[in-house]
């Protein structure tokens, strides 16, 4: 069954790559007349299937933004303000780096408007062009430019098009259903994680002892069991309301987009690293972070008023008194949720507070269950300490984010993994009772639960150790820096003994224009002419690898297929590899700048545009990865292929080409 599925996948991708040129975004223009001299230039993008278009502003290191350039006709028109765009959806993607980023994009349909004023009434047509990139969740096409023409003589009055605008909004809402589904999945994930975090906070010394005290208060003060249940439920709902209000205030003050931008900001990551370290040290017992005692006193006095207001202030008093335990968890959740944008902070606080409020309502309804609760004791502090270690480990993720953006190479992969090994190793020793912290009770033995958790943490620590020598560590791949961001791409202390390493140490041994691709040590060229010249010199066939820095399927091929011994042998010894990056944004040298054959009148400005045009014109394809085996006369020796995750099939394709070259 797996082979059948793999065959169908390869057939589908291969057909789309070879049989046609992808052009998933089509543009059309229209004009709205606002007054005698004011017009709106409307550019509408129709986006096929799972493809999407990025916004006009994207994070640094991301894709090229959608950019409109308007011809002012020699000063005859005035461009007013910026081009407006639809609301779109902010989604997290790893297309543009293993660390990933949140980028605003549009699906199905996107309408952009630019207001202009006529300085010269004789102008009847305005020319412009849009530069953009089309992507799915797994791949991107090369950047593209499309000419736009706006005919002012066919403009429609804004009032007359009100119904059309309304219809367009409805169409956009229907078109964005798929992206909204993905957004809902993300919010459900945040709610679930926040809910579990609420249960963790519940098992801390600040909150857990409050359960029997509070439930007992309601059952004794209420005239009937039903009234006690009602009051406890109101108490639980008040807790939820307080925390949801906190999430709403954070979102309202900073704004969803601002929070999202903060989450990828260098200074924000550095500040939050310091805050998490402070929270962690507090959890470990060095000091306690508390709100002013006067707050608790004033709120507690209001709780004596009785009725609904009194119950609400009892819930508020719980939130204030337990802040030393819940504050660090709430702060972490708010930032993590903020990185998703939108209403995620509100959803996160809803999940967190629901987990805390639920036990109060349940134990009030069934007071007999209180007898089954474990007694308060030293185990509550153990929970707090474990959370402190986890906060400390998470803190270094934020420090790593800042280091990656600044490219300082201070916290490379090996250093990050070593720090995590130290943190979780210390946690394992703590759980085994070998380390005592300030607020721990003396223990003569450890429980089965504590021993089990200690074994799990110790196993996790041992699992991370091979990461120092280059192991991928798939279980935590989202946390440490990527493998190429390291002291050595081959791991600490590892020395290559083959020819490739000699060539790496002595770059003069490499052919002119060649590079070594770690960790496979494949000799690769990024220049077509130099690679072809070398292939003729050594008498081997050429393999063109049309790839991209943002191509996920390209990385999958390199990491999962190229690494297979028999495939690697062919790539290293039987062919000359020329990797051409179609999204390479480095500018071409002056003498290399030529007019585009696909878009007459436009110049090829970037290296990637040159290779993209070569692929499109010569091979009638523009998707990546795309592999071509050819003779020295540049004729194909086998049919080109696209993404092919089956290593055996890919090897057979390579062998067929090598055999045909020898004939």
From TrEMBL:
Membrane topology: Multi-pass membrane protein
One GO CC term, this protein: membrane
InterPro entries in alphabetical order: Cyt_c_assmbl_TM_dom, DsbDN_sf, Thioredoxin-like_sf
Gene3D superfamilies named among the record's database cross-references: Glutaredoxin (3.40.30.10), Thiol:disulfide interchange protein DsbD, N-terminal domain (2.60.40.1250)
Keyword Metal-binding included in the entry's annotation: no
Main location: membrane
Entry's localization field: Membrane
Residue ranges constituting the Cytochrome C biogenesis protein transmembrane domain according to the UniProt record: 190-400
Transmembrane segments: 186-211, 232-254, 266-287, 308-330, 342-366, 378-395, 415-432, 453-471
Single GO biological process annotation from the record: cell redox homeostasis
Annotated signal sequence range: 1-19
Keywords for the protein's UniProt record, in alphabetical order: Cytochrome c-type biogenesis, Membrane, Signal, Transmembrane, Transmembrane helix
GO molecular function, one term: protein-disulfide reductase activity
PANTHER family, per database record: THIOL:DISULFIDE INTERCHANGE PROTEIN DSBD
Annotated protein name in UniProt: Thiol:disulfide interchange protein DsbD
Species of provenance: Tenacibaculum lutimaris
